[in-house]
# Entry
Amino acid sequence: MSFAANGKILDCMMNEPTQGMATVLFSRQAADGQIAVAVFLLDLYCLGVKDTIADYWAPTRYNEFREKLVSEQGLERISPGMACGVVEAAVEYADSFGIAPHADYRKMVAIWGDVVPEPIDGRVEFGRDGKPIYVAGPHDSPMKQRSILQKLEASAGEGN
# Structure
């Protein structure tokens, strides 16, 4: 993603969080006209960056993808700083419990380039009622589930 870090920002979008989940889309146009796209699936209750999509597409393919994502996820435009701010805050929240972001996340942060994260105080809620809530996904192995629950218990305390 570093090859597009200085490209023109095309889209910064996010949906309204539903049951602790949100999607952030960020895209830039590279020097060759292709579009670098990063999508972050955020678990605002616990895991931070739960999943990612990164790709490099022709404008036509990107536009089709974006329109489908907007239609299915209800994405709305936000500022680049807000997009970066909410993703980084989700990473920090999960990190406070010893939970690392999705394995591909570190490869994708270069796409932010010179974007300065905006503070998101009061605009996005992490956890539920002040506590982290882990909801196992369909692809979370029993071993991963145990690991996450152990980290939460060690950092937040039993029952929290």
Remarks:
- The chain has one domain: 2-133.
- The chain has a mean pLDDT of 90.
- Residues 2-133 form one domain.
- The two ends are 37 Å apart (CA to CA).
